[in-house]
Amino acid sequence: MKRERIVAIVNRKGGSGKSTTTLNLAGALADLGLRVLAVDLDPQASLTRLLSDDPVERGIGACISAPGQSAAELIRNTGAGIDLLPGDRSIEAAALALNDSPAGFLRLRRVLARLEGYGVVLLDTPPALGFAVSSAVLAAGWAVLPTATTQQDIDALVDTLGAIDELAEDEMHGARRLAIVPNAVHRDRPDQGGLAALQGAYGELVAAPIPHAAAIKRALNRRLPLSRTEPGAAPMAAYRALARRVADAIAGPAPDGAGAAPEKEAAHVGAIV
Fold this sequence. Notes:
Number of domains: 1
Number of helices: 11
Helix content: 40-55%
CATH topology: Rossmann fold
Strand order of the largest sheet: 3-2-4-1-5-6
Order of helices and strands: EHEHHEHHEHEHEHHHH
Structural class: alpha/beta
Largest sheet: 6 strands, parallel
Distance between the termini: 44 Å
């Protein structure tokens, strides 16, 4: 699997909507005719529990600890029309086992490189900067960063972008920034102020905001992407636009300046009113 077809869904903060974004982006990409694999790198395994009832005997962490083990053997078909490489707490064991390995962060890249037959691979990551996130960033060609719109969430977004940049500064070049995805955006003044701050700081990197909608919750309760439950729901326009952005990125060369820090970026992005 070429890195250009691997997309890491990252943000160090919990509640930013990473698993929800992974699920619904996967559904929208499948609608474009792409075969999608979702990889659950979160020890909490929220995406795995959402998509599969079967117990996990071996998760992706087992393959990272011993890269000779075939990840393809662990892949599950799901009722959501998305293939799943399940996660469990073995990712934590892998982090400990590889603590002293100078190439430990590159193990995931080696595991995923052996996979074939997918148009796109989405990496769902945990809400923390650490082994799993660094491994995902170094395995992927692109990074999608979901975020809420409070100042606390935006600060966490800046931290996450900084961590990606720090890897690059150490010549560990990984995922290029593809999209910042404002999640669960209300029409109220605080959310709109946060959205304006993001757009002012990051410009076209900010994707169409995902509006707050009960339809997303209903889809999660049914354990399916929104594209399968309510394809006409308002958030689907934003998910489809994000899917097109991903599809265009994986189909062509990286845009000029990809991965570079935006000129307006700062420790605090604007002032949210």
